[in-house]
Amino acid sequence: MRMIAVSLALVSLALPALGDPASAPSQPAPTPTASAPGAPNEDVLGEFVVTGVTTAEKLPRIAVLPSLSPLYEDVVVRGVVRRDFELTGLFELISDSKAPPGLYGFEDPIDVDAWQKLGAEAIVKVAAEKKDDNTIQVLGVAYFLSVGKEPVYQKTIVVPKAEARVTAHRITDALLGALTGRPGSFASELTFSGKWAQNRRIFRMDADGNSLLALTDPSDTAIAPNFGQPGHILYSVSHEYSPFAVMDHFGTANKPVRLPFTTSVYSLAFNKERTKLAVAVGENSRSVIYVGNADGSDMKKVSTSELATRPVWSPSGKLAWVGGDPSQGSQRIWVDGKPVSPAGFTAASPAFCDTEDGVKLVYSVATGNNHQDLVIAAEKGQNMARLTQNQGSNSYPACSPDGRLVAFFSTREKAPGIWLMSLKSYKAQQVSTQQGESLNWAALPASAGDAP
Question: Cβ(399)–Cβ(320) under 8 Å?
Answer without folding.
Answer: no
